[in-house]
Design goal:
alpha/beta; Fumarate Reductase Iron-sulfur Protein, Chain B, domain 2; FAD/NAD(P)-binding domain; five-stranded parallel sheet; 16% strand
Length: 482
């Protein structure tokens, strides 16, 4: 046997992929006292390392998990090559709000949940990379002006300047249509402005995207309440709009229906967060819009809005407690938001259900009577149903309560346009393939159709609606009524 044949053959060395890159963020102690953004974002070097983790699958399941079908391997691969501007352009092919979605969308249950790498290791941090590249071009003013098709002469009304309305307006403007957006509040942005706190979504990012819309020729009218100033029918018959998109959201808060809920110091999460976010109550006394400053705030609920309320209360100087009737496992809030709240000092009273609000002789909130719960069999949502533990009543002292148990669409538009078909939950009924309502030429999407959901799901419906509206007004097809 030759010497060569005796030499052992070395096994091929497998390329070791780097671990998922952690996101730099403010320390819990520091951030609990300010409204500055918690995560700091990736550096270019960190983004490139994270992007190299992507397997560049031939059949990327992550794209199927994205409601707007972003070419995830495409933009991630460009980041890995250091081509950040090209990556941003690739993102903008499918999403109007990458800097927003990179911050607030639940990637862990959507695109990242489908990541093949995540089967054995941690998934690629798609959301963090989306945020990085969107911030990179925005801060450096590198984003090219959007390309617009020649003017079509068609005019479309968009009701609501939230995620759905912004998406529809942008897509239709690029197709050459004249778009007018009607926003009920004094600033556009919808839930991005009034609902999500500054420490999760800086408002300068939302305003940047709004200005991009204006740069495309989109007209935005604020303080304009459709259903009061004009009706949907009037927009078509009197104002000459060729089509209407309704993206008015779900801004009508739900309440518990317990005694004492009308006490002074009890707020819906909508009012509480609107005062803080849209009306800058966190800069009190510069802006005299703050709720009466409380010593102890109880937030009722377990979703992302509840986490936003509880964490905001903490930053206003109060002790902050979350009361939720199920266990942590059933909480619909993102795990990251719950983790951040706990780090900052929010106290969680789980398996706890409110019974009544306690008041003093001036009808001011002084506490909440609660009942301990235990989990029974799953209900229609798939989560285990909370069952009261008899005789377990106890009291939590507090001088403010925030109710955060969900929202439904404001009934103003359906009431003033009764020909619009609605569901038993007050949402607009649409053809899911086209987002067409029961009224020809009127389309809808977002929370007004689905009920309170995510930013990205609203954008996904809006993109379907934009395609349908374009076909409708150009006479290529007639969208079938719902």
């Amino acid at each position: 046997m030759s010497e060569e044949s005796k030499t052992p053959i070395a096994a091929p060395v497998k390329k070791q992929r780097p671990p998922r890159q952690p996101m730099p963020e403010q320390s819990p102690r520091r951030r609990a006292t300010n409204f500055l953004e918690v995560p700091r974002g990736y550096t270019p070097e960190m983004a490139i390392v994270e992007a190299t983790r992507c397997l560049q699958c031939k059949k990327p399941q992550c794209v199927l998990g994205c409601p707007v079908n972003i070419d995830i391997p495409g933009f991630v691969g460009l980041i890995a090559e250091g081509k950040f501007e090209a990556a941003a352009a690739k993102l903008k092919e499918q999403t109007a709000l990458p800097a927003v979605c990179g911050r607030v969308c639940p990637q862990e249950t959507q695109c990242e949940a489908q990541c093949i790498l995540g089967k054995k290791f941690e998934p690629v941090a798609v959301g963090r990379l989306e945020r990085f590249v969107a911030d990179y071009v925005r801060v450096r003013q590198l984003e090219p002006p959007p390309q617009r098709a020649p003017a079509t002469g068609k005019k479309i009304a968009v009701i609501g300047a939230g995620p759905a309305g912004i998406t529809v307006a942008g897509d239709l403007a690029r197709l050459g249509h004249k778009v007018v957006v009607f926003e009920a509040l004094h600033l556009p942005g919808g839930v991005l402005m009034y609902g999500i706190p500054e420490f999760r979504l800086p408002k300068e990012i939302v305003l940047y995207e709004i200005n991009n819309l204006r740069g495309m020729g989109v007209e935005i009218l604020t303080d304009y309440v459709i259903g009061k100033t004009e009706t949907v029918t009037q927009l078509i018959e009197e104002e000459g709009f060729d089509a209407v998109f309704i993206g008015s959201g779900a801004g009508l808060p739900m309440f518990l229906g317990i005694p004492g809920e009308n006490a002074i110091g009890v707020y819906s999460a909508n009012e509480f967060l609107t005062r803080i976010n849209l009306m800058k109550a966190y800069e009190f006394p510069r802006y005299a819009t703050s709720p009466p400053l409380a010593k102890h705030v109880i937030t009722v609920g377990g979703g992302n809005v509840a986490m936003d309320s509880a964490r905001s209360a903490l930053r206003l100087g109060a002790r902050s407690t979350v009361v939720y009737r199920r266990s942590r496992q059933e909480m619909p809030a993102r795990a990251e938001e719950v983790h951040h709240a706990e780090e900052e000092g929010v106290v969680f009273n789980l398996l706890t259900n409110p019974v009544r609000i306690l008041t003093d002789d001036r009808n001011r909130c002084v506490g909440m009577e609660c009942l301990r719960m235990q989990l029974g069999e799953p209900d229609s949502s798939g989560r285990r149903r909370p069952v009261p533990v008899e005789g377990s009543n106890f009291v939590i002292e507090a001088d403010a309560v925030v109710i955060s148990i969900g929202n439904s669409p404001n009934p103003l538009i359906p009431q003033t346009s009764p020909q619009l078909k609605t569901s038993k939950w007050g949402t607009l009924v649409v053809d899911e393939k086209t987002m067409a309502t029961s009224v020809p030429g009127v389309f809808a999407g977002g929370d007004v159709v689905s009920g309170a959901a995510t930013v990205i799901s609203a954008m996904g419906q809006a993109k379907i609606a934009a395609r349908s509206i374009h076909e409708y007004v150009m006479g290529k097809a007639t969208a079938s009524p719902a």
